[in-house]
């Protein structure tokens, strides 16, 4: 998070660093004009949240410098935080989910789509291995993840958080798709022999190589377009999972545990959304209550 500070402002003594220096760095990060640490092109444009996280971290450092008597004041406190416009998330209705699954029925990688709608993060799908899947116990354990960093696939040994490491039951539909995928990969390994990369990834190509996270996103986008339903991101499939569970009456604590969140309030605030059909059902329920109340008033 502080890498741009080191690369762009690291040559300055902390006593010489000014409010303007930090402010201009934020602007360059927003514009995408900051070079990468190794000089390989430029960094992607930073969003408001990343910029603000960096400012919080830098402010904590300056707070300690003031306490230690190294600087007179915390100049980072004077830097305006970047306004953070909340992201708008879209979800698929149960009918649209069914349409997507029907469309990918013959796709070699359809199990990846099932896992996305099952609520797994993109990195969790990319890092999942067959050793994490227990067909007899009918459970799936989330562990290592594969994420994209500056365009490169990077595998992390640890999950996103302690709560992200979780074991989930496998429903019958997903179990069928995972078994079919394992069988397909076994045939491909047999056909290629020593040329096959037997690393045991659940989502991999025909030679056993794991998919780059961006490739998983592209496959999802292609599947959604072919299904003729509203285009939503791969991560929005995770939101679809949380919303569907909520609309089916699943307790909030269970949804949070399923998605790997420690904060139930965060789950309900960020991953649970309304849908048109749910609003229609709500209108009917309200109408029934209002009608009964009006009848009682008339009596």
| Overall spatial form | globular
Round the mean pLDDT to the nearest integer and report it. 87
% residues in beta strands: 5-15%
Number of strands: 5
Describe the structure.
With 299 residues, this protein is mostly helical. Helices cover 51% and strands 6% of the residues. The protein is built from twelve helices and five strands. Strands 1-2-5 form a three-stranded antiparallel β-sheet, with no helix packed on it. A two-stranded antiparallel sheet has the order 3-4. A hairpin with a 2-residue loop joins strand 3 and strand 4. Helix 4 crosses helix 8 and helix 5 packs antiparallel against helix 7. It starts with a helix and ends with a helix.
In a few lines, what is going on in this structure?
This protein is mainly alpha-helical and 299 residues long.
């Amino acid at each position: 998070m502080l890498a741009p500070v080191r690369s762009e402002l690291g040559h300055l003594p902390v006593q010489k660093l000014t409010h303007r220096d930090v402010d201009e760095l934020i602007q360059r990060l927003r514009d995408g004009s900051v070079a990468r640490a190794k000089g390989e092109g430029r960094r992607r444009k930073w969003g408001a949240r990343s910029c603000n996280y960096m400012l919080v971290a830098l402010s904590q450092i300056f707070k300690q410098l003031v306490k230690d008597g190294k600087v007179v004041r915390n100049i980072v406190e004077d830097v305006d935080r970047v306004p953070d416009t909340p992201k708008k998330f879209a979800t698929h209705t149960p009918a649209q989910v069914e349409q997507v699954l029907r469309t990918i029925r013959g796709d070699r990688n359809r199990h990846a789509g099932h896992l996305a709608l099952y609520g797994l993060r993109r990195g969790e799908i990319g890092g999942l291995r067959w050793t994490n899947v227990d067909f007899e116990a009918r459970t799936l354990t989330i562990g290592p993840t594969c994420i994209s960093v500056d365009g490169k696939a990077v595998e992390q040994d640890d999950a996103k958080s302690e709560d992200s490491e979780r074991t989930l039951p496998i429903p019958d539909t997903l179990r069928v798709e995972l078994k079919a995928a394992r069988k397909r990969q076994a045939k491909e390994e047999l056909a290629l022999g020593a040329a096959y990369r037997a690393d045991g990834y659940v989502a991999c190509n025909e030679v056993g190589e794991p998919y780059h996270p961006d490739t998983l996103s592209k496959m999802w986008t292609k599947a959604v377009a072919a299904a003729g339903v509203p285009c939503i991101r791969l991560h929005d499939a995770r939101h679809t999972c949380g919303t569907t569970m909520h609309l089916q009456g699943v307790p909030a604590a269970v949804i949070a545990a399923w998605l790997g969140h420690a904060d139930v309030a965060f789950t309900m605030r960020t991953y649970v959304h309304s849908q048109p059909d749910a609003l229609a059902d709500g209108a009917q329920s309200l109408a029934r209550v209002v009608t009964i109340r009006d009848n009682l008033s008339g009596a």
